[in-house]
Amino acid sequence: MIAGAAAKIGPGIASLGEMKPLVVVGSANADFVLSVDRLPCPGETVSASASDLFPGGKGANQAAAAARLGHETIFIGQRGADANGDFLRDALVESGVKVHRLKTVPSCSTGSAYIFLQPSGENSIVILGGANQKGWELAGEDEEAISAAGAVLLQREIPEHVNLAVSEVAKRHGVPVILDAGGVDAPLDEKILRNLSVLSPNETELARLTGMPTGTDGEMMKAAQSLLSLDVGKVLIKLGSRGSVMVSKEGPEIKQRALPVDKVADTTGAGDCFTAAFAVGYVQGWPLERCMLFASQAASLCIQKKGAMVSLPFANEMPLQGA
Q1: Exposed e or buried b per residue across 150-165, where buried means at least 16 C-beta atoms within 10 angstroms of its C-beta
Q2: Residue 307 annotated as binding?
Q3: Is 121 known as a binding-site position?
Q4: Which one of 8, 23, 64, 213 has the fewest CB atoms closer than 10 angstroms to its CB?
Q5: Full-prediction pTM beyond 0.85?
Q6: Dist. CA 113–CA 143, nearest whole Å
Q7: Where in the cell is it found (predicted)?
Q8: Catalytic residue among 37, 82, 185, 272
């Protein structure tokens, strides 16, 4: 399916550990997954065929994805003082993430997500923020980790002022910042936009951020250009089954097709996997085309398994293994 792609990409992940770490700042959630035939209509009750608990949260997923792909990854986040917090910490450690900056918030539950999974693999999600939204303050050790990073990866399931503070620390120290636009349906502070090397929305998030239509390729390009005019470095648009496209001021857009899979089991976490894999290549200094292909490869493996963090591929599963 994607065998042989390594030849197109060049030197592989064997050298990733030599690079500066990737620092991921974001959310950690316990994902409660209900398998349903379809979503209920208003006032209707439907039955679930299965119920599962998985580790998740956009920040934790992206940290786990990068670590599983072989890159040193530090996670800065918050968990509750409860069993779900321990569950998430253990899952991150098992994926190889460094969790010494994962804080425990007393008298608060760990964040959670309630995911309705349909037979097609499509999902609908309701999030309860919990510790992800409580009492955030960057400590000196956090700032040290950010300033020494090869890149910082952010999402939008934690308070906006935290992302702003992190992006400002990173920019002062010349550290690239990648922001995945998923996590909240709200405008994005223009102060953050000016600090971003890469902003990665899907087409729906792009429309929400810009207030512009994104129904056609031309409309998407115009919306992305409007973000570039606000000093965003590059815009990486995730298009699901249609692939991805990168827009920047440096040249024409770069397109990457989605790679075919035999069966889609669950799309939960696929966008997180894509963004994290892209970030791994970006930290490595790969050409953008190579980063996008690597991200597509990782996402294509992710969607063939159920769950978010548990479906993320390891380095030895990727076509780059041993390259």
Answers
A1: bbbbbbbbbbeebbbb
A2: yes
A3: no
A4: 8
A5: yes
A6: 28
A7: Cytoplasm; Nucleus
A8: 272
